[in-house]
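Annex B. Sample input.
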Amino acid sequence: MSTTRFFKKQSEKGKKVLSALDDIEAEMKKIGFWKENPPDVKVGNYIEAPSFELWLQCVFLPNARKAAQTGEYPDGSQVGLMAMREYDYHSCVEEALTLVSLLNDFDKLVVGK
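Annex B, continued. Sample output.
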């Protein structure tokens, strides 16, 4: 694959990923999971965060946007599975089901499926 085709392919993927992240943010705002003035969340993983929603907003989304802009994606993503465990494991949080679906779609984009 030529370098030009590689970067074009990466930028197309980046656009799709950024669009997916915008959809995730919009859904979080729509269902009231978004904080206008979030605390400074500096954690290693979502379990250490005050809430899964704050981890999504303050850690996941900024890191995922950076990856989309640089083209440096992780080998895999399981944020959809994490959301499913958070919102649809012991009891179902109906308002979060679209968010879970969007996060699963993000996982597929990252791994190229």
